[in-house]
Amino acid sequence: MNYDEQIFIPVTTMQQRFTGNDRILQIVVHASTVEAVPKAIEEVKAVIRKRHRNEDGFFRIFEVHSGTSSLLKISTVIKIALGSIAGFSLLVGGIGIMNMMLVAVAERTREIGLCKALGAKNSDILLQFLTESVNLCCIGGLLGVGLGVFVGKGMAYLAVRIVKIVPEWSAVFSPQWILISVVFSAGLGICFGLYPAIKAMRLSPIEALRAE
Question: At a CB cut-off of 8 Å and minimum separation 6, what does 112 contact?
């Protein structure tokens, strides 16, 4: 590629006609592919050095790809931090669900004993308490999705009102990820509700009926 004839002569002529000097503040070069960027940089350096007697101190090359890599690293760090916060929040929420179910088992001991005395199987008791735990988590997940949609749309509205340059700032919500979050909430209810349900299932009917 002959950069001398294709770039420098037309740009120099334009500079002289419009600004009265031949200084070039910036040249933008596009490579055909990302893999061709290093080769294009070397070609541009060779042409500039040839035009200016192999001097390097008067020009600087900025590669957009390197800036993109830095942004991707920052984005990865932010995702890891937010993921850690979300995981910790889920752990705390799961422990809270388990404590609630343990309290429910303790308060409904006589009810469990009565159900077993009337013929309820251990699997019925297990399923009952697991269903309650899953329902609690699913309701919490749906409330979280609703809050997320509300906050997302509110932030988008504020962004448009504050940054006047942006005509529209749309908040995008994926139905697929909403479904995944609700399903994950149900799985969380099963995981943290299993121990209280097993504890309720193993209660002796006689001992449960004696409980005050």
Answer: 105, 125, 200, 203, 208
Structural contact between residues 193 and 130, judged by C-beta atoms closer than 8 angstroms = yes
What does the alpha-carbon distance between residue 39 and residue 200 come to, in Å, rounded to a whole number? 70
Percent of the chain with pLDDT over 90: 1
d(CA 46, CA 174): 49
In 3D space, the residue among 82, 107, 92 whose CA is nearest the CA of residue 192 turns out to be: 92
CA dihedral (16, 22, 23, 26) in degrees, to 10, reads 70
Spatial separation of the C-alpha atoms in residues 83 and 77, rounded to whole Å:
10
131 vs 168: CA distance, rounded Å: 43
CA distances from 200 to 42, 62, 123 (A): 73, 66, 10
The answer to pTM > 0.70 is no
pLDDT in tens, 3-54: 444 444 555 666 666 666 666 667 777 777 767 777 877 887 787 777 766 6
Instruction: Give 3-state DSSP helix, strand, coil % of the chain, rounded to 5.
Output: 75, 0, 25
Helix/strand number for the chain, H first, E second: 8, 0
How deeply is 37 buried, as exposed, middle or buried, from its count of CB atoms within 10 A (0-12, 13-18, 19+)?
middle
Q: Is 202:110 a contact under the CB 8 Å cutoff?
A: no
Q: Are 194 and 100 in contact (CB under 8 A)?
A: no
Please give the Cα distance from 67 to 65 (Å, whole number).
5
